[in-house]
Design a protein that fits this description.
Layout: H1 6-24, E1 28-36, E2 39-47, E3 50-59, H2 67-70, H3 73-89, E4 97-106, E5 112-121
Parallel strand pairs: 3-4
Antiparallel strand pairs: 1-2, 2-3, 4-5
């Protein structure tokens, strides 16, 4: 059996820490690692009746900038498509939704910083 890619393991650990962080803030996790034909969603949560699509970025250092820099225009456009497909499959076209970004920076066992940006971007962005 092959050892898992360390980057994949770090990404999974970052998503777990982001999930725990959001649960502590009162979010209810609806789905994790949703794979659809147009892409993947890291986390889907409910925040007081609002469907929240959460993009999680794990960074071991500060070298790549903050959470907003981690989700560029191309990534936002992809997330919009995936979210639309997710909502359509569940017949949730009438549900309010938003896009959050969570950056997990550093190693959990050493020093970790979590940056959460609610409503980081919206569907009207060009």
């Amino acid at each position: 059996m092959f050892a898992a890619d360390p980057r994949h393991q770090f990404g999974q650990a970052s998503e777990m820490r982001a999930e725990q962080f959001l649960i502590a803030k009162g979010y209810r996790i609806l789905d994790r690692n949703v794979r659809l034909s147009v892409g993947e969603l890291d986390l889907v949560a409910d925040d007081r009746g609002v469907v929240v699509f959460v993009e999680v970025k794990g960074r071991s250092t500060e070298a790549f900038g903050g959470a907003l820099l981690a989700v560029n225009r191309r990534k936002r456009a992809k997330l919009l498509k995936v979210a639309a497909q997710y909502l359509a499959q569940r017949h949730w076209s009438d549900r309010l939704c938003r896009f959050d970004v969570v950056l997990v920076q550093g190693e959990a066992s050493i020093s970790e910083h979590i940056e959460h940006i609610p409503n980081a971007f919206d569907a009207t962005e060009r």
